[in-house]
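In keeping with the milestone schedule agreed at the kick-off meeting, the structural modelling team has produced records for the first pair of proteins. Each record is given below as a sequence line and a C-alpha cell line. The laboratory manager (R.T.) confirmed that both were archived under the project's standard naming scheme.
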Amino acid sequence: MRQRGPHHLLSMADLDRDGIEQLLNLTESFAEVGERPIPKVPALRGKTVAWLFYEDSTRTRLSFETAAKRLSADTMNFSVSSSSVNKGESLRDTIETISAMGIDGIVVRHSAAGVPQQVTQWTEASVINAGDGWHQHPTQCLLDLFTARTHFGDLEGRRITIVGDIRHSRVARSNALGFATMGAKVTLVAPPSLLPSSLEGWPVAVCHNLDEALEDTDICYLLRMQLERQKQAVVPSLREFHNEYGLTVARADRLRSDALIMHPGPMNRGVEIAGEVAERPQAVIGEQVANGVSVRMAVLFLLLGSGLDVVDNNRIAA
C-alpha cells in the first residue's frame, strides 16, 4: 500500500496493484464473517471510529457504520446539522476537538476536494476518504473491483465502459485509476459537456457513441447525472440524454450474456438506466452494496488493526 501518511486511505493513487490485491483478498475473509449467524469479530475491540459527513449519504455511511460494528469498534457519530459547525466552528477546530476525545479513525465525506488530505494535518488518527468533491471515492472503487473480481476473477484485459456524468463524478476518477491499475481497459462514454476539461493523466480511452462502446464490454458502469454539482445545463434534456447515453432495454439486450451492469447508486431510473434493466440478473447493484460492508471492514482493519494476527489462513478468527 502506497500511502501519503502512515495510516490513511485518501485516494486510489495510494494503492498499487499489490495493495489492492491485499485488500480484496482480506475482503473475501470478511465476507465470510457476514455469513455467520452472529456476524461480528473482536478485531477492532477498543478502537473508536468517528464519522464526519458534511454531505448527505445513505449507502456509504451505513456501510461504514455496519463495518465498524461488525469489527467490534466503538463509533462516534458527528451530525453537521446539530453541531457547532452551525455556530461557525471551523473544520480544523472540529477535527481537533474530536481527536482530543480519543479516536483511532476518522471517516470523512466533504463537498470540497482535498479535505481528507487536509484533515491528516490536524489529527493523529487514521483518515479514510469517503468522498471529497469531484476528486476521489476509494472505497467505492474497491467494492466495485471486488464485485467485478467475484464474477470474472482476474481483471487483466477486461473492458470497462463508464457512462454518464464523468465531469462531476469522483467515482469515475477512482474507478478509472483502480480498474486500470488491475489491468483492465477503461473507456469513458459521455457527451463533451460531461467530460472533464482535461483528461491528462487518466488511463482511459474516450468514446461519444455508447452503442459502439458497448460492443464486447465486460462491465457497463453507469453514473447518475449529478445535478447538485452542475452549475449550468450540460445536456438539452434528460430525455435526450437517456436516448443517447442511457442503458435502454434495447442496448441492454445487445450486451453479452456474461456482461455486468453496475451503478454506485442512487439510481435515476429512466435517465442513465431504464427501470426494467436495473432489475435484470446482469445488474449487480445489490451485490455492490453488500460487498461495500466487507470492503470497508477490510480497510478499517488494515488501517486501525494491530496487524493480521486475527487472520488464520484467510479466515477471520471469531
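The second protein of the pair:
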Amino acid sequence: MWRPAVLIGRSLTDLFTAAVCTFFVAVTGLLVGWRPEANALSTIGGFAIFLLFSYAVSWGCACLGIVSKGPESAQGLGLVVLFPLAVVSNALVPTARMPEILRTIADWNPVSAVTAASRHLFANPNPSAAIHAWPMEHPVVASVLWSIGLLAVFVPLGTSLYRRRTTE
C-alpha cells in the first residue's frame, strides 16, 4: 500500500467533514437571515477559500497527531495552537479597536485573511477591508498563499513523520 494513502485519506475525510459542517452553518445562516450578496461563482469561491484553508490546517493537525503520545495529548496540542488563531483574529470581532500588538497579529493571522476573503467573496460587510495591512487589503490572495504555504510545509512533514512512525 502507498504509505501516504493513509494520511491523504484522513485529510480528505477531514475536508469532507469540514464541507458538511460548512453546509450546516450556511443553511443555519440562511434560515436566520444571512444572504451572500455576490453572484453564485463568487459565493462558491468564498466557501472554497474556507475549505482550502481547512484542508491545509488538517495536515498541520495530522502532524500534531503523529508526534503526540495519544489522542488526548493530540487534542490538547491542537487546541493550544488553533484556539489563539481563532480568538486573535477578525472572525469574532473587528480588529480596529484591539491594542496595537494584538491588532497587528490579528491582521496578519491566516484565520483573519480567510474570514476577510470569505466576506469579500460573499460581498457581505467586511470591516477588515479598511485596514492597511497587506493580508486585509488582498485577503483572497493572502488566504490562498497561507493555504499553499501550510500545505507546502505540512504535507511533506506529515508524510515524513508518518513514515518514521510506522517503520519503528
